[in-house]
Design brief:
Elements (H helix, E strand, L loop, with lengths): L4 H4 L8 H15 L4 E3 L15 H15 L4 E3 L7 H10 L3 H7 L17 H7 L2
Parallel strand pairs: 1-2
Length: 128
C-alpha cells in the first residue's frame, strides 16, 4: 500500500503556508513597484516541506507572472546552502547576531538562540 503524502509531511507543516505568504509579498511588491522578493527557503533544509523546494519557487514565479503579467520574481539565495553555510554567510556579512536574536530560524518559532535541540542550533551558536 502506498503511503499518502499527508502521512509523510511533518506535523509542523502548514498547508499552503508559503504560497500564502509569498503571494502576499508579491501583492505588496506589485503595489510598491518592486520586481524582486527574496525568501529564505532552502532545499537542503527540506525537512519534508514541499514548499521549500526550488521547483515550487519556480512554479510560483511562473504563476505570479501569469496572474499579473509583471516580472515579479522570488529569489532564493539560501536555496542550496545548509544551516552551517547560512550561518557562515550571516557571519561574513556581520549579521549573525541579528539572525540569532531577531529572526524565526527554527521550526518551533523561538526568537533568539533557538531550541538548542535541532541540528541547526549548535551550528549557529558555535559561531558566536
Amino acid at each position: 500500500m502506498k503511503k499518502s503524502i499527508e502521512s509523510e509531511l511533518p506535523n509542523t507543516f502548514v498547508p499552503e503556508g508559503n504560497i500564502l505568504f509569498l503571494t502576499l509579498a508579491a501583492i505588496y511588491a506589485y503595489q510598491v513597484q518592486v520586481d524582486v522578493v527574496i525568501t529564505g527557503v532552502c532545499e537542503t533544509d527540506f525537512s519534508g516541506y514541499p514548499d521549500y523546494r526550488d521547483e515550487f519557487v519556480k512554479a510560483l514565479n511562473q504563476a505570479i507572472f501569469l496572474d499579473i503579467a509583471k516580472p515579479i520574481r522570488f529569489e532564493t539565495p539560501l536555496m542550496w546552502l545548509n544551516k552551517a553555510e547560512t550561518c557562515s554567510l550571516a557571519d561574513y556579512y556581520h549579521s549573525l547576531k541579528l539572525v540569532q536574536n531577531k529572526t524565526f530560524t527554527f521550526y518551533n518559532s523561538i526568537i533568539g538562540n533557538g531550541c538548542q535541540q535541532c541540528a541547526g542550533c549548535p551550528i549557529c551558536t558555535q559561531m558566536d
